[in-house]
Design the sequence.
């Protein structure tokens, strides 16, 4: 398979779509990112890398960070985590409050904001310096010591973060947030602000395609059982209330963020990431989703 040629074909086919989406405008620091940015990066399990477009340029990974925090929480707590967060798709938008009251403050899954706040809360309980632990984990996974939080984005998130604040206080009222709400939100806003390139992302997510092993260092990150669990949850909950459409079109587990990035995993074969800041109505990258659909179609790969 000539992956480079496939990526170039896709770049050509989806480029016009990049201007059709809308940048996330409720976080001012994200609203200024040009719509015509576009990247695809691919890393195979044999270690080969391919890319097109702005694959070296850093962008705000936003909700993709929920996979890193969830991985740490699952390592730390294993099945205990499921007492505090569910494993079912929500069918509501990523920042919705509605289910929380009916379900007594137990968020549907770890990849919507409510669930991610609970996961972030567990990191505050597990570590003395959770911000440092998290960024070091991401740096180690991607083998890039320069990856960092973007303080401007984190501040902007906080200034426009009243919905997340509402979620966190509401969950705390149900006694499912243990730490100080401001500390939970500070860590959450920072995790969303992590700045990485499409290439950093395919390197960092290698463990989910490679039986839990970090390819670059051969270090075991998580067990194969945990890989199975994370990928299953990504398939059913990773792309918000458009998860059915994403699974139908792309056929891979994946995680999106409102910075316009999406990472998808073909276990045993590769990790692919896309970046195109224009979003569809569900908060997933419009051209990015199309690029992934084209990739799995052209390469005839999918988990099904
Ligand atoms: N920082 C964003 C928020 O909490 C992340 C959401 C996302 O990427 N879907 O609203």
Sequence:
């Amino acid at each position: 398979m000539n992956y480079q040629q496939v990526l170039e074909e896709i770049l050509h086919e989806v480029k016009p779509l990049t201007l059709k989406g809308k940048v996330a405008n409720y976080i001012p620091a994200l609203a200024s990112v040009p719509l015509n940015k576009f990247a695809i990066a691919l890393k195979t399990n044999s270690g080969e890398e391919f890319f097109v477009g702005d694959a070296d340029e850093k962008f705000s990974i936003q909700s993709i960070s929920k996979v890193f925090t969830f991985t740490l929480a699952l390592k730390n707590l294993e099945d205990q985590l499921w007492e505090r967060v569910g494993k079912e798709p929500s069918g509501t938008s990523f920042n919705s409050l509605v289910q929380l009251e009916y379900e007594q403050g137990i968020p549907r899954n770890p990849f919507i904001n409510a669930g991610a706040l609970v996961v972030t809360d567990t990191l505050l309980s597990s570590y003395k310096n959770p911000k440092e632990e998290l960024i070091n984990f991401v740096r180690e996974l991607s083998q890039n010591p320069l990856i960092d939080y973007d303080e401007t984005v984190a501040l902007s998130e906080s200034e426009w973060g009243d919905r997340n604040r509402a979620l966190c206080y509401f969950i705390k009222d149900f006694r499912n947030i243990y730490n100080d709400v401001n500390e939970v939100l500070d860590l959450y806003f920072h995790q969303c602000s992590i700045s990485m390139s499409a290439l950093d992302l395919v390197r960092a997510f290698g463990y989910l395609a490679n039986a839990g092993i970090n390819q670059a260092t051969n270090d075991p990150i998580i067990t194969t059982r945990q890989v199975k669990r994370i990928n299953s949850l990504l398939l059913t909950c990773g792309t918000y209330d458009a998860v059915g459409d994403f699974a139908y079109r792309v056929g891979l587990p994946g995680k999106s963020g409102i910075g316009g990035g999406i990472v998808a995993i073909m276990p045993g074969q590769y990790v692919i990431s896309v970046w195109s800041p224009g979003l569809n109505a569900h908060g997933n990258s419009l051209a990015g989703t199309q690029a992934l659909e084209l990739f799995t179609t052209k390469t005839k790969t999918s988990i099904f």
